[in-house]
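Feature request, filed as a ticket because there's no other form

It would be nice if the structure record came with a short human-readable summary line next to the C-alpha cells. Right now we just get the raw output. Example of a typical job, pasted below so the devs can see what we mean:
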Amino acid sequence: MAPNTHQGSSLLVFLCLAGAMALWGSAFIAIKIALNDIPPFALIFLRLILGSVFFLAFWRVSFREVVASKDRWLLLLMSIFEPCLYFLFETKALMYTTASQAGVVFAFLPILILVFSYILHREKPSFAQVIGGVIAVIGVVILCLSGSPSADASSPAFGNFLELLAMASAAVYTVLLKRLSGTYSPFFLAAVQSFTGAIFFLPFGIYDFAQGVTIGATSAIAVIYLGLIVTAGAYTLFNVGISKTSVAQGAMYFNLVPIFTIIFSMAFLGETISLAQLASMALVVLGVLLGLAPSRQRAIEAA
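Raw output as currently delivered:
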C-alpha cells in the first residue's frame, strides 16, 4: 500500500502544479486580450475582486480555520509579496522592458526560490535539482531570446530590475506559503491572497477607472477567466501542490510557464513556433524532469 500511496501523492502534486502553471501560462494570453480595453491596474483589481467573490461564495463551507496570532503577520506578509508586490513590480516592469526580456528574467524564479528556501528554511536542494534547474533555465532563456521581436523598450535595464524584484517577491511568497501550508488549507490561503490583493489594488483600480474605461465583450470574458479561473484556480492548485512536496521540487514547475504560454499563443493568437523554440522547449522539459527525479535517499524511503 505504501508505494501506491506515494505514487498517488506524486500524481496529485504533478497534476496540481502542472495545472497551476498551465493556468498561469494561459493568463498571459487573457491579459493581452483584456489590455486592449482595460488599463493594467484596473485589470488586476477586477481579477482580484472576482477571485474574492468566488472565495466568498464558499466561505461558510470551506473556511473553518482559526488563525493563530503568531501566524497573522506571516499570512499578511505572504499576501503582500504575492499578489501585491509581485503584480505591482511586474506590471510596471512591462511598461519599460519587452516581454521577451522579462521572460528571460522570469527564468531565474526557480533559482531564487531555491536560494530563499535555503536561507529561511535551510532546505538544501539535491544535486539533480540543481543540475535540472540550470538546464531548464538555459532552455527558458533560449526560448525567450528566440521569440519574435516585441515593441521597443524605453528603459530595459530599469524594467528588467523591476521584473527581478517581481521574481524575488514570488520566491519569498513561495517559501512563506510552504511554511503556512502545513497549518492552513490551500483554499483558505488562496482566499487570503485574493482578499489582501483586492484591498491593496483598490486605490489603483479607482484611479484607472476614473480616467474612463469601456470594456468590450471579449475583454469582459478575458477578465472573468482571469478572476474566476486563473486567480482562484491557479493559486488553489499551486497551494495544494506545494503543500505536498518540497519547495525545491515545486520551484522546478515554474519553468513550464513559458512553454504553456507559447502553446496557448499558438492556439488562440495564431502565433507560430520556430525550430529553435521547439528545441529549447525540449531542453526545459528535460531539465524539469531531471529536477523532479527523486534522490537516491528519497527513493529508498519510498520503497
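Something like this underneath would help us a lot:
Residues 42 and 205 are 4 Å apart (CA to CA).
The chain is about 80% helix and 0% strand.
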